[in-house]
Structure formats: structure tokens, C-alpha cells
Write a structure and sequence with these properties.
This is c-Myc-binding protein. The chain is mainly alpha-helical. It is built from 5 helices and no strands.
């Protein structure tokens, strides 16, 4: 009987731990979303993974990649603008099509 009480106590401690951290609420919300899904997905496990994965904190590596992507987009825009300016300058020095035909 003492073994049963110890196990029960551990279960209760673990349940409180999960409740305190919001794990039970999150699981409940995801399971309710699955229940209310009009067309049940082929893989309930994938559904759970997807919905739980969206709620997890970001991986620091992902944040670094996002920052790098933003930098690259800015460099790309600057390069496009520079390219336009250089093309405009080059066009000033190239003979026009009409002048080429006249020669």
C-alpha cells in the first residue's frame, strides 16, 4: 500500500508541474482544435506536432538566419539601385540607336 501512495504522490507532483508550466492547457487546446477540425487530418500526430511546434520558443539559430536574410535583402536592394545608376551612366556614353543608324 505504501508503494501505491508514493506512486500516486509522484503522479500528483508531476501533474502540478505540468499544470504550472502551462503544458496541460496547451495540450488541451491542441486536442480541442483537433476535435473541432471539420476534416480530420490523416495523421493526428503530425497535426499535434505542427500545432505544438508553432507554440515553442524560437531556436536562436533561426533568429540569426532571419537577421542574415534581412541583411541580404537590404544588400540586394542596394545592389539593384546601384545597378540602375550604373546603367543610366553607361547609357549616357553609349551612342544612341538613331546615331548608329545614321553612320
Amino acid at each position: 500500500m505504501a508503494h501505491y501512495i508514493a506512486t500516486d504522490s509522484k503522479r500528483e507532483q508531476f501533474r502540478r508541474y505540468l499544470e504550472k508550466l502551462g503544458v496541460l492547457d496547451m495540450l488541451t487546446k491542441v486536442l480541442v482544435a483537433l476535435y473541432e477540425e471539420p476534416e480530420k487530418p490523416n495523421s493526428a500526430l503530425d497535426f499535434l506536432k505542427h500545432h505544438l511546434g508553432a507554440a515553442t520558443p524560437e531556436n536562436p539559430e533561426i533568429e540569426l538566419l532571419r537577421l542574415e536574410l534581412a541583411e541580404m535583402k537590404e544588400k540586394y536592394k542596394a545592389t539593384i539601385e546601384e545597378n540602375k545608376k550604373i546603367k543610366a551612366k553607361l547609357a549616357q556614353y553609349e551612342p544612341r540607336q538613331e546615331e548608329k543608324r545614321a553612320e
